[in-house]
Amino acid sequence: GSTIGILGGGQLGRMIAMTAAQLGYRCHIYAPEAESVAAEVSAQFTRAAWDDQAAMGAFAASCDVVTYEFENVPVAALQPIPSEKLAPGARALEVAQDRLNEKNFVVELGGTPAPFAPVDTDEDLAAAIAAIGAPGILKTRRDGYDGKGQWRIASADDAATLSVPPVGLIYEGLVRFGAEFSVILVRGRDGEVRFWDSTQNVHEHGILALSFLPAAPIVREQVEAARALARRVADALDYVGVLTLEFFATEDGPVFNEMAPRVHNSGHWTTEGAVIGQFENHVRAICGMPLGETRSVSANVVMRNLVGESGLNAAEILSDPANHLHLYGKAEAREGRKMGHVTRIGE
Ligand code: ATP
Ligand code: MG
Ligand code: MG
């Protein structure tokens, strides 16, 4: 069988690998960390730094196709991978790993993000707040996830007391939204695009807590416009695989938040809640196989994340016989760490 290379060793890689195994593929994980919950379920593991070009070259040579489960892989590290082996391509990574690039890219395609301005100095921040107003959020352009690298700013005075790292930043106005949702699509090598239903997503402390169907009416009203944008993004990148765009549903229509060039936490429900889920369709797409039906199997779905140290009682969760439990096999629970999720389909 063929070998799928996965850059990144976390739970998304683990779930890609488990699905790939079901389809008869073997997986080779490449990650810098010693602990990899993806490597535990894969045939091979290369533990090496991203910029280890020799290790990356050997990894690429061992794989028929290479994908990523982590959007912060430095683009330069991909250089030893022949571009025809990489799916999605390097351009998707380059755009999506920098909040400024991704917002500019989406604006060019007709999307509407929150008002934003790049910030590199204290003066930039003061000017951004003067232009955009407060409240707002200051974010690192790169490397943020689960709300890390973000500072809420209530007023210009607030900003003066901040000590932020000396990296590229972006200031954005705080969006007043009715609900959050994501558009998750899969695009095949032939350009075919399929969408899953859009759940409503609820975040707590910057981390996804819940995704559910049916979403609020305001989400359902805005999904079509959001999908049209997501399709333009996928086409513009000649994207292959699963792509996610996050949105705020507002009185003025869908406001683009960010994109992820990969399978997504808010799509975990699709494993049991859609005819074919995001992991299987990602594997099918990158391997050039026919895409599967994305239709939901029920109008009612809830996916709940298991985050941090508390609330992890498997027996209690399974005492509801309709619950699907996914544990990621992480050795150590920490505050804000995603340990697993529970999906329930139906009323
Ligand atoms: P992820 O884990 O989704 O990649 P992230 O660290 O990239 O998270 P964001 O998606 O930028 O973070 O923000 C996390 C959450 O914070 C959002 O889902 C939303 O609830 C809130 N948020 C972020 N930016 C804004 C904004 N401009 N206005 C209002 N809420 C916001
Ligand atoms: Mg993000
Ligand atoms: Mg996000």
UniProtKB/TrEMBL annotation:
It comes from the Bacteria. Pathway: Purine metabolism; IMP biosynthesis via de novo pathway; 5-amino-1-(5-phospho-D-ribosyl)imidazole-4-carboxylate from 5-amino-1-(5-phospho-D-ribosyl)imidazole (N5-CAIR route): step 1/2. GO terms for biological process: 'de novo' IMP biosynthetic process. It catalyses: 5-amino-1-(5-phospho-beta-D-ribosyl)imidazole + hydrogencarbonate + ATP = 5-carboxyamino-1-(5-phospho-D-ribosyl)imidazole + ADP + phosphate + 2 H(+). Residues 103-287 form the ATP-grasp domain. GO terms for molecular function: 5-(carboxyamino)imidazole ribonucleotide synthase activity; ATP binding; metal ion binding; phosphoribosylaminoimidazole carboxylase activity. It is an enzyme of class 6 (ligase). InterPro entries: ATP-grasp, ATP-grasp_carboxylate-amine, ATP_grasp_subdomain_1, PreATP-grasp_dom_sf, PurK, PurK_C, PurT/PurK_preATP-grasp, Rudment_hybrid_motif. Gene3D superfamilies: 3.40.50.20, ATP-grasp fold, A domain, ATP-grasp fold, B domain. ATP binds at residues 99, 139, 144-150, 172-175, 180, 203, 257-258. It holds the Pfam family PurK_C. Its EC number is 6.3.4.18. Keywords: ATP-binding, Ligase, Nucleotide-binding, Purine biosynthesis. The keyword RNA-binding does not apply. One of its GO terms (cellular component) is cytosol. SUPFAM superfamilies: Glutathione synthetase ATP-binding domain-like, PreATP-grasp domain, Rudiment single hybrid motif. PANTHER family: PHOSPHORIBOSYLAMINOIMIDAZOLE CARBOXYLASE, PURINE BIOSYNTHESIS PROTEIN 6/7, PUR6/7. Homodimer. Belongs to the PurK/PurT family. Catalyzes the ATP-dependent conversion of 5-aminoimidazole ribonucleotide (AIR) and HCO(3)(-) to N5-carboxyaminoimidazole ribonucleotide (N5-CAIR). Catalyzes the ATP-dependent conversion of 5-aminoimidazole ribonucleotide (AIR) and HCO(3)- to N5-carboxyaminoimidazole ribonucleotide (N5-CAIR). This is N5-carboxyaminoimidazole ribonucleotide synthase. It comes from Croceibacterium xixiisoli.
